[in-house]
Amino acid sequence: MRSIKTSYAQSKYIGRLPKGCVQCMRGRKLVLFVTGVCHHSCYYCPLSSKRKNVDKTWANEALVSSDEDVVREARLCSSRGVGVTGGEPLARFDRTIKYIRLLKRAFGAKFHVHLYTSGDVLSDKMLRELEDAGLDELRLHLREDLSLIDKCLGHKFDVGAEVPVVPGKEEKLKELILYLEKVGAKFLNLNELEMSELNFSRMTKRGLLSNEDVFNTVRGSYDAGLALLEFARRNTDKLSVHFCTSCVKNVYQYQNRLRLRAKSILKGFERSVDYCMIEKGVVEGDFGKIISELRLTESEFFINRDEMRVEMSVKNARRAKGLGYKCAVVKVMPTSDSFDFEKEVL
Length: 346
Prior knowledge:
Helices cover 33% and strands 24% of the residues. By secondary structure, it is of the alpha/beta class. It is elongated and about 75 Å long. The mean pLDDT is 95.
């Protein structure tokens, strides 16, 4: 009899976790958003207006303008793999292949690559090219035509499906579980359904309600996910099934990735606080005068011209306050689009 296990990130699964999921939970996956272009209009699509149907590439929060941008972000986050997503990444197939090859060259064959796709644009030629480029894991967002996965099997990469748990669609998802077991797919990832600013109205029009207990989740999705996992436990022998909760993505995946990036970019005068934030002092005024009066060495400050301030240790910012300068202590998100998450005026 199969058993339901608990992952490091407190998600539930049977069988074995896909390698992409293991790395993701630890914050070790670069999220490569190849393009926002997609030929589907899923009502539960969570993409923001900044990315939805916009043909731009993002590496985590960094807008990509060169190949080096992708490699640099992977290095800063100490990534051991990449999740290639969109939109529909295969809508820009040559771009997708280019980035897979780029990352494999930069970090080696063991750099794990998993890719998300609807599957309905995949051709045999595409599958061969993905295999040749070094793809490790293919995740299909299957809708009505479950047989789309059939042609993907038999390659060197692992093949599975990843779908949201929509309350009321449990019978369809049970059919999917049984089909994947029958054809020999490697895994199924069931995602707790989430609401975003962009999909909220579309979701509520379909009778889906926000869960008041857990931010941004859909009422009933969590319980349905656990019930489907129990169904899979009783009705499958080989298929691995993982129920990925909102907590996995928003707490473990995201915060672990930020923690790793913070460690890479931390300046000598900054402190790592609250697990993944960077704390420092900031002082406004004449840059040269501030540095001179505080007698700061080159390693003790940074001039942030975007924010028009001198950044330094909290201790030195308090000294500057004593000299009459406008000062604050800030906690900063360690992302490429860094911003002040908290600010305490001294």
